């Protein structure tokens, strides 16, 4: 795990959320952090597949202590999509 976000401080900004998502992706795909951008497609740009996307969602749910509904998780294509769902469901 990248870091324990159970006691994620209220003042933590959205840049920290992106950084955490990015580091989860970097750890999972063993890639350089510079390869991960908001517009990166998990499959086309980062070399993942559908199973990797599902595993990323599970890792992100665990990291941020959130639950992303399956119908929304299935629509994730880019890092931005994942980020938007964390912002939507994460309570500061």
UniProtKB/TrEMBL annotation:
Keyword Cytoplasm on entry: yes
Processing after translation: 4'-phosphopantetheine is transferred from CoA to a specific serine of apo-ACP by acpS.
UniProt record similarity statement: Belongs to the acyl carrier protein (ACP) family.
Key words of the record: Cytoplasm, Fatty acid biosynthesis, Fatty acid metabolism, Lipid biosynthesis, Lipid metabolism, Phosphopantetheine, Phosphoprotein
Name of the protein described by the UniProt record: Acyl carrier protein
Record function comment: Carrier of the growing fatty acid chain in fatty acid biosynthesis.
Domain Carrier per the UniProt entry, residue ranges: 15-90
Compartment(s): Cytoplasm
Pathway assigned in UniProt: Lipid metabolism; fatty acid biosynthesis
Top-level taxon in the UniProt lineage: Bacteria
GO cellular component, one term: cytosol
Organism the protein comes from: Salinimicrobium profundisediminis
SUPFAM superfamilies: ACP-like
Example of a GO MF term: acyl carrier activity
A GO BP annotation: lipid A biosynthetic process
Gene3D superfamilies associated with the record: ACP-like
Gene field: acpP
HAMAP family named among the record's database cross-references: Acyl_carrier
Lineage of the organism: Bacteria, Pseudomonadati, Bacteroidota, Flavobacteriia, Flavobacteriales
Pfam families, alphabetized: PP-binding
InterPro entries assigned: ACP, ACP-like_sf, PP-bd_ACP
